[in-house]
């Protein structure tokens, strides 16, 4: 069983070398507050209410499976992992983020989805 608490963040891919333009738009025009720090994949993170927006530079290759994804906070990550594996869903891991456990999987269309649980 998966018990989703809330949408945690959305990762949006931007072209390589365009982080400054993305900061000007999301931080300047949209006035989102940037979250400082060294984030996975050199991403730039912003606060959008109680949801985060993660901007990640990515090559736009036709045969590339994108890193775009929603991330859902769950109440029991281990139970969610067991449930998905029992359904034949392949689990993948990525870089470590302090204070969170997480994993990724793909939906039937190849879209990436992250489930995470904050550590207490």
UniProtKB/TrEMBL annotation:
Taxonomic superkingdom: Bacteria
SUPFAM superfamilies, per database record: Glyoxalase/Bleomycin resistance protein/Dihydroxybiphenyl dioxygenase
VOC domain sequence ranges: 6-118
Pfam families the record matches: Glyoxalase
Gene3D superfamilies named among the record's database cross-references: 2,3-Dihydroxybiphenyl 1,2-Dioxygenase, domain 1
Cited PROSITE patterns: VOC
PANTHER family for this protein: FAMILY PROTEIN, PUTATIVE (AFU_ORTHOLOGUE AFUA_3G15060)-RELATED
Protein name: Phage portal protein
Organism, as annotated: Chitinophaga barathri
């Amino acid at each position: 069983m998966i018990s989703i608490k809330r949408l945690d963040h959305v990762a949006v891919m931007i072209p390589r070398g365009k982080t400054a333009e993305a900061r000007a738009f999301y931080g300047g025009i949209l006035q989102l507050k940037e979250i400082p720090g060294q984030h996975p994949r050199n991403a730039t993170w912003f606060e959008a209410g109680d949801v985060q927006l993660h901007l990640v530079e990515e090559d736009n290759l036709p045969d590339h499976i994108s890193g775009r994804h929603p991330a859902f906070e769950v109440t029991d990550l281990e139970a969610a992992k067991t449930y998905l594996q029992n359904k034949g869903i392949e689990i993948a891991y990525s870089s470590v983020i302090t204070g969170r456990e997480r994993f990724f999987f793909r939906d039937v269309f190849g879209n990436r989805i992250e489930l995470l649980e904050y550590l207490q």
